[in-house]
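Researcher: Let's continue the batch. This sequence belongs to Pma1 protein, and it's 233 residues. Same format as the previous ones, please.
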Amino acid sequence: MLLLLAAAASVVVNLTNDSKREEALSYTTSVAILVLVLINASITSYTEHQAGNALDALAKLSQAEVSVLRDGKPVRLPTVEVVRGDVVVLETGDVVPADVRLLSTSDLKVDEKALTGEPEDVPKNTKIKEQTKLTPENMAFSGCPVASGRCSGVVVATGMDTRIGEIAQMMAKEDDDAGRCSCGSTSSKTPLQENVERLGARIGMAAIVMASAVFIAGVGIGTKDPEFPDSPS
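Model: Same format as before. Here are the structure tokens for Pma1 protein:
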């Protein structure tokens, strides 16, 4: 919104300045800002659309059974019977039935579009690292399809206690609060929303850098002010 206001202000200034109406270069800043806004809006729309498609696909892909280790042997159990502490075994094509901390992996990649909007399959392993990503590398989350490889892991959360369950509760709460004032309230954000906000911040910084570069370049080449051509640059 701030970028749009800046672009509008730049256009108004140029239109009301007789000496600049015929100069195409005077609109460079406005055009650059609008291009950045359009790019940001396009990427945001695409990401949310992809996430929406992923959620629809997950509803169709939800499997009825999963392989669980019982007495050291894998047995097939209904997904709804999986509880915390169970050790599940997953292969390519399986859908993770709960939030799972990985115990072993083999070339494992998981599709996390439904959680983060990430278009690429995410590699997973058992290493515990300082968390710098939205989803830890040693965790597989409920509802995410196994894109490739295999793994075993211990269930740490099921049902509405899973990451995707928390997101569903947040969305339901937002629907319940629709139409009511939420001024001053603070609500947690989904990983997808955090990704979109980070993208917006980066594009905003890019706009500032671009504007600064144009200004510095203008000063460097000694650009004159059209209204005061005789003044020192």
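Researcher: Any comment?
Model: The chain has five helices and seven strands.
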